[in-house]
């Protein structure tokens, strides 16, 4: 496969800032990054470009192979089959089929080797649920498309920090009720494999977060560290595939001094992972889905409905997602070539 294949950027929520981000990402990066193409509605993007005075030309293409020949002059777009009814700031469930089509086609182009990676613009999940979308979000839908039994793992990665939440989009009470040692081990092992394959870390170092204040302080502030987390750490150490530290008290885990000691932090619930990385490096943080056969990244922010018609959306995180997707795809390609040699 050609290492210079373009990545596919999905439409995302059409009433949000995804279209604006795609246009601005092309505008900012066309001279110094590998080509990418959008799967979207060309006239919709032309209207956004005109409305905000971006001056971005749109080139309608029918296949990813046409992307490189037009990328210097225009944003390449593979059209969706149906138009969308996009009112800025107001999601419409009738657009769900087009939103899903964009994701599915991006996956298919990547799975069959015509694209290098999937980069997803943010979704408005509520609008999809109203249209009976059965998956919690992008990550689970891509796992469904990929292969039976695929276990997707969400990593947030930036130059300053990598974090993986063991429980993700569930209420905090349910996260605490469902957390098990087996879940910690499974997601840690997938993370270890991804650090090797996708981030070129030969001997990964994982920090396992505690759950309670002071990591439970020997069960005086909670027993999850002893009952659930320590057994997982013991199992991971016995496997000897990475260097493991923990349980680390959560209030100490993300200090500059401690961050030097690990390549990724395994966190027990969503906000324990996402608050620190967004506080430290929100503009350059990227959502990476581990455990898939394809490369998938996404900006680390939402649809920003409140600024969807103001022309002020910042493409920095999308550019970071595209760059990271290209880096991971290149590492996988070189690893595949090395194995075949």
Which structural traits does this protein have?
15% strand, globular, 13 helices, Isopropylmalate Dehydrogenase, single chain, alpha/beta, 2 domains, 341 residues
Helix content: 40-55%
Number of strands: 12
The CATH superfamily of the largest domain is known as Isopropylmalate Dehydrogenase
Task: Name the average pLDDT.
Answer: 92
CATH architecture type of the largest domain: 3-Layer(aba) Sandwich
Quote the CATH topology of the largest domain.
Answer: Isopropylmalate Dehydrogenase
Rg: 20 Å
For the biggest β-sheet, the strand order reads 3-4-2-1-5-12-11-6-7-10-8-9
* Share of β-strand residues: 15-25%
CATH C-level of the largest domain: Alpha Beta
Q: Please report the number of helical segments.
A: 13
Largest sheet: 12 strands, mixed
End-to-end CA span: 14 Å
**Cα shape:** globular
Helix-strand category: alpha/beta
Low-confidence spans: pLDDT under 50, at least 5 residues? Answer: none
Question: Can you offer a commentary on this structure?
Answer:
With 341 residues, this protein is α/β, with parallel strands linked by helices. It folds into two domains: 1-152 and 292-341, Isopropylmalate Dehydrogenase, CATH 3.40.718; 155-282, Isopropylmalate Dehydrogenase (3-Layer(aba) Sandwich). The protein is built from 13 helices and twelve strands. It has helices at residues 18-29, 42-51, 67-70, 96-111, 125-130, 138-146, 172-178, 181-199, 224-239, 250-253, 256-259, 270-281, 316-340; strands spanning 7-10, 36-40, 58-60, 75-79, 118-119, 153-157, 162-165, 205-209, 243-248, 264-267, 286-290, 296-299. It has a twelve-stranded mixed β-sheet, sandwiched between helices. Helix 4 packs across helix 6 and helix 8 packs across helix 9. The model has no long low-confidence stretch (mean pLDDT 92).
């Amino acid at each position: 496969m050609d290492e210079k294949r373009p990545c596919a950027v999905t439409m995302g929520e059409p009433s949000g800032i995804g279209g604006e981000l795609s246009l601005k990402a092309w505008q900012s990066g066309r001279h110094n990054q590998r080509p990418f193409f959008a799967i979207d509605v060309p006239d919709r993007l032309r209207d956004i470009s005109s409305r905000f005075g971006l001056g971005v030309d749109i080139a309608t293409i029918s296949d990813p192979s046409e992307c490189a020949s037009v990328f210097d002059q225009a944003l390449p777009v593979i059209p969706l089959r149906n138009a969308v009814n996009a009112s800025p700031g107001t999601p419409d469930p009738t657009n769900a089929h087009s939103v899903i089509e964009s994701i599915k086609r991006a996956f298919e182009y990547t799975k069959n080797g015509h694209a290098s990676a999937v980069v997803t613009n943010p979704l408005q999940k509520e609008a999809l649920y109203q249209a009976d979308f059965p998956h919690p979000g992008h990550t689970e839908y891509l796992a469904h498309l990929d292969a039976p039994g695929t276990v997707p793992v969400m990593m947030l990665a930036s130059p300053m920090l990598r974090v993986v939440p063991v429980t993700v989009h569930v209420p905090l009470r349910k996260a605490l009720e469902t957390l098990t040692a087996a879940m910690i081990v499974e997601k840690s092992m997938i993370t270890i494999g991804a650090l090797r394959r996708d981030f070129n870390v030969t001997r990964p170092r994982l920090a396992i977060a505690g759950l309670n204040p002071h990591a439970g302080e020997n069960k005086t502030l909670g027993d999850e560290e002893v009952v659930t987390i320590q057994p997982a750490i013991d199992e991971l150490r016995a496997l000897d595939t990475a260097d493991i530290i923990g349980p680390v008290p959560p209030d100490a885990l993300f200090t500059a001094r401690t961050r030097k000691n690990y390549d990724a932090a395994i966190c027990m619930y969503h906000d324990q992972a996402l608050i620190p990385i967004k506080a430290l490096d929100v503009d350059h943080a990227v959502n990476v889905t581990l455990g898939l056969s394809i490369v998938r990244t996404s900006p680390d922010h939402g649809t920003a409905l409140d600024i969807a018609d103001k022309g002020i959306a910042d493409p920095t995180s999308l550019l970071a997602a595209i760059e990271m997707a290209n880096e991971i795809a290149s590492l996988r390609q070189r690893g595949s070539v090395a194995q075949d040699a």
